[in-house]
C-alpha cells in the first residue's frame, strides 16, 4: 500500500465503530432484499397454488415475517443514510481543518505562487467530493457484491437456461453504462470548471465595479459575463444529453431483459418446464441483479471524483513550509531592538536574479532610520527579511547580536510591528480589528491605542463607535482612517521594532499629517525603519539609507547627504517622490 492510500484510509480511524455498523447495516439490507422474493415464492407455491392445509394462517405468518424484515430493512437503510453521511461529513471536516492548519504553516513563497481563489476551491469543493466517496464507497461495494451474487444464485437455482439468457445482456449493459457514465463525468467536470469561470468573472467585475463604472465599461463586463454564462450552458447541455442516454439506456436494457424472460420463460411454462411461481420470483430477482451495475457505475464516478479531490488535497498537504524553526531555536522575551544585516544577499527563487546583493547595515536599538531609493530596488524585500518572511541566501541578519534563524519565528514576529501601504482589515467591527494586535486586550486598552493613533475621534463619529462594522476589507472607511486603525493595532501590540513601508504614500496631505503624527508617536523609543517617498517623512530620520540596484549607495543624515551631492541630493531635489 503506498503512502497516499494509507493516508486516505487513515481518516476512517476515528470512526471505525461507525464504519462497522454501517457495513453491517449494508449487509442486512442486501440480505433482506434477497429474502423478500423468496418469501413471495414460498407463499405462491405453498398457499396460492392450493398446496397448504391452513392457507390463511400461513399467509399471516409469512406476512408478519415480511413486515418484520421490511421494518429492519428501513431502520438499517435509515442508519446508512443518516449516520453514514454524517461519518463522511466528520471525515471531511477533519480533512478541511487539517488543510486550513497547514495553510497557516506555509511560507510566503507558497502564497506568491498560488491564487487565493484556487486555494479556496481546494478547501471546499475538492474535499466535498470526498464525503460521498468515504461514505458510499465501502457500503456500495458490500451491497453490490452481495446483491449480485445472491440474485445470481437464486436465478441459477430456479432456472439455468433463463439465467444464461439474462447474462447475455449484462456485458452489453455494463459497457453501455460505463461509456455514458464516463461522458457524463467529463461533462460534469467541464461544467464545474465553467461555473468556476463564472464565479471568477463575477468576483472580478464586482470587486472592480468602481473601475468598471468610471471607465463606463459595463458593456464589456456584460459581454465577458455572457460568454462565460453561455459556455456554462453548453457544458450543461452535454451533461444532460449523456445523462439522458445513460438513464434511458439502462431502462431500455432492463425492459429488453424482461421481454426476453417473458418470452423464454412463458415458453418454458407452456412446455411445463417451469412453474409460474418460479417465473414470478425470476422477475423479482432481475431488478436485484441489475441494481448493482448501476450502483457500481455510480461508485466509479464517486471514486474518480473523490480520488482527484484527494490528490489535489494531498498536493497541498505535502508542501513543506520553506522556513521552519530549527530544533534549538530560542524563545526571546527581552528585545532591545538592534537589527544588523551582515553581508546579506537574497533572491526570491533559485532561477531569479538577486534582489539584494551583499547588503550590510547596522541599526541601533531605538534608532530611526529611513530607507529611500527608486521603485523596485528591494526596499520592501529588505524589510520582509527582518521578520523572516523569506530566508536570506547568503549572510545573516542579527537581532540584538543573535542570528534570527536561532529564534522561533513566533517570538521574533511578536517583537516586530509592521505598517504597510496596503492596509488589510478583517471583516468585523472597529474594535475587533484593533484587538487583532493583542487578542487579550480589554476595551480600555483598545481605546487608549486608538487615541495614540489619532483614531479615537473619527471612531467616535462612526454610527456605532467602536462597534461599527467596517465592511469587507474596511470599504466603509477612508484610506487615512484604515491606516490609523492599522497603527492602533500596532500600538496595542507594542513591539520594540517597527517597520513602516510607505505607510503614508497613498494618502492625501491632510490624512498624511494625521497618520504621520501617530507614526511619530509610535516610533518613540523603538527601533524604526521607514520606507518613504516624501521628503517631509525622511528628513527627520537619524540616518538615511539610500538603496540602489547596486546595493546601499549612501548612508548619512539629511544634511550630510545633501552636502555630498550624490543620489540622495538629486532625489531630494525632486522631492523624493519616485
Ligand atoms: P521596492 O519596495 O524597493 O519597490 P521590492 O522589494 O518590492 O521593491 O521588489 C524588489 C524586486 O523584487 C522587484 O524587482 C520585484 O519585482 C521583485 N519581487 C518583489 N516581490 C517578489 C515576490 N514575491 N516574488 C518574486 N519577485 C518579487
Ligand atoms: Mg516596496
From TrEMBL:
Residue span, ABC transmembrane type-1 domain: 23-305
Coiled coil: none
Location within or outside the cell: Cell membrane
CDD domains referenced in this protein's UniProt entry, alphabetically: ABC_6TM_YwjA_like, ABCC_MsbA
Principal location: membrane
One term of GO molecular function: ATP hydrolysis activity
Transmembrane stretches, start-end: 12-38, 58-80, 141-158, 164-181, 245-269
GO cellular component: plasma membrane
Lipid bilayer topology: Multi-pass membrane protein
UniProt KW keywords: ATP-binding, Membrane, Nucleotide-binding, Transmembrane, Transmembrane helix
Domain ABC transporter: 339-574
Domain of life: Bacteria
Record-linked Gene3D superfamilies: ABC transporter type 1, transmembrane domain, P-loop containing nucleotide triphosphate hydrolases
Similarity-based family: Belongs to the ABC transporter superfamily.
Protein name stated in the entry: ABC transporter related protein
Taxonomic source organism: Paenibacillus vortex V453
Lineage of the species this protein comes from: Bacteria, Bacillati, Bacillota, Bacilli, Bacillales
Amino acid at each position: 500500500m503506498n503512502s497516499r492510500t494509507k493516508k486516505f484510509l487513515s481518516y476512517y480511524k476515528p470512526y471505525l465503530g461507525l464504519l462497522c455498523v454501517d457495513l453491517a447495516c449494508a449487509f442486512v439490507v442486501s440480505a433482506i432484499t434477497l429474502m423478500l422474493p423468496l418469501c413471495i415464492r414460498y407463499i405462491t407455491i405453498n398457499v396460492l397454488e392450493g398446496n397448504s392445509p391452513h392457507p390463511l394462517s400461513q399467509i399471516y405468518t409469512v406476512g408478519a415475517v415480511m413486515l418484520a424484515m421490511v421494518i429492519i430493512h428501513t431502520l438499517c437503510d435509515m442508519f446508512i443514510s443518516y449516520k453514514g453521511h454524517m461519518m463522511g461529513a466528520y471525515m471531511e471536516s477533519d480533512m478541511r481543518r487539517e488543510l486550513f492548519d497547514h495553510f497557516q504553516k506555509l511560507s510566503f513563497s507558497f502564497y506568491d505562487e498560488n491564487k487565493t481563489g484556487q486555494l479556496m476551491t481546494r478547501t471546499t469543493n475538492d474535499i466535498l467530493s470526498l464525503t460521498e466517496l468515504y461514505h458510499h464507497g465501502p457500503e456500495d461495494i458490500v451491497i453490490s457484491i452481495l446483491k449480485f451474487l445472491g440474485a445470481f444464485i437464486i436465478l441459477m437455482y430456479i432456472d439455468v437456461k433463463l439465467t444464461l439468457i439474462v447474462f447475455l445482456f449484462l456485458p452489453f449493459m455494463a459497457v453501455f453504462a460505463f461509456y455514458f457514465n464516463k461522458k457524463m463525468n467529463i461533462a460534469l467536470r467541464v461544467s464545474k470548471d465553467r461555473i468556476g469561470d463564472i464565479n471568477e468573472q463575477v468576483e472580478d467585475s464586482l470587486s472592480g465595479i468602481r473601475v468598471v463604472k468610471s471607465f463606463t465599461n459595463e458593456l464589456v463586463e456584460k459581454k465577458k459575463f455572457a460568454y462565460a454564462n453561455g459556455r456554462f450552458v453548453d457544458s450543461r447541455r452535454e451533461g444532460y444529453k449523456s445523462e439522458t442516454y445513460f438513464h434511458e439506456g439502462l431502462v431500455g436494457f432492463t425492459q429488453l431483459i424482461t421481454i426476453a424472460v417473458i418470452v423464454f420463460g412463458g415458453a418454458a411454462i407452456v412446455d411445463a418446464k417451469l412453474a409460474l411461481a418460479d417465473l414470478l420470483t425470476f422477475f423479482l430477482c432481475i431488478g436485484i441483479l441489475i441494481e448493482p451495475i448501476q450502483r457500481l457505475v455510480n461508485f466509479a464516478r464517486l471514486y474518480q471524483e473523490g480520488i482527484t479531490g484527494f490528490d489535489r488535497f494531498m498536493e497541498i498537504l505535502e508542501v513543506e513550509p520553506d522556513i521552519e524553526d530549527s530544533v534549538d531555536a530560542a524563545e526571546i522575551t527581552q528585545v532591545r531592538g538592534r537589527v544588523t544585516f551582515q553581508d546579506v544577499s537574497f533572491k526570491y527563487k533559485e532561477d531569479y536574479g538577486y534582489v539584494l546583493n551583499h547588503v550590510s547595515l547596522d541599526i541601533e536599538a531605538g534608532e530611526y532610520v529611513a530607507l529611500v531609493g527608486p521603485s523596485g530596488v528591494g526596499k520592501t524585500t529588505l524589510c520582509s527579511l527582518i521578520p523572516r518572511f523569506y530566508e536570506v541566501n547568503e549572510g545573516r541578519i542579527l537581532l540584538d547580536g543573535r542570528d534570527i534563524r536561532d529564534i522561533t519565528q513566533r517570538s521574533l514576529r511578536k517583537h516586530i510591528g509592521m505598517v504597510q501601504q496596503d492596509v488589510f482589515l478583517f471583516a468585523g467591527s472597529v474594535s475587533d480589528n484593533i484587538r487583532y494586535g493583542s487578542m487579550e486586550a480589554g476595551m480600555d486598552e483598545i481605546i487608549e491605542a486608538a487615541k495614540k493613533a489619532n483614531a479615537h475621534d473619527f471612531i467616535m463619529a462612526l454610527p456605532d463607535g467602536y462597534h461599527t462594522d467596517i465592511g469587507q476589507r474596511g470599504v466603509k472607511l477612508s484610506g487615512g482612517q484604515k491606516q490609523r486603525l492599522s497603527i492602533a493595532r500596532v500600538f496595542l501590540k507594542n513591539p520594540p521594532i517597527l517597520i513602516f513601508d510607505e505607510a503614508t504614500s497613498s494618502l492625501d496631505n491632510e490624512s498624511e499629517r494625521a497618520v504621520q503624527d501617530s507614526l511619530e508617536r509610535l516610533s518613540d523609543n523603538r527601533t524604526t525603519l521607514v520606507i518613504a517617498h516624501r521628503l517631509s517623512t525622511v528628513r527627520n530620520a537619524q540616518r538615511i539609507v539610500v538603496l540602489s540596484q547596486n546595493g546601499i549607495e549612501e548612508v548619512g543624515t539629511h544634511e550630510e547627504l545633501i552636502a555630498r551631492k550624490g543620489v540622495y541630493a538629486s532625489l531630494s531635489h525632486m522631492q523624493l517622490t519616485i
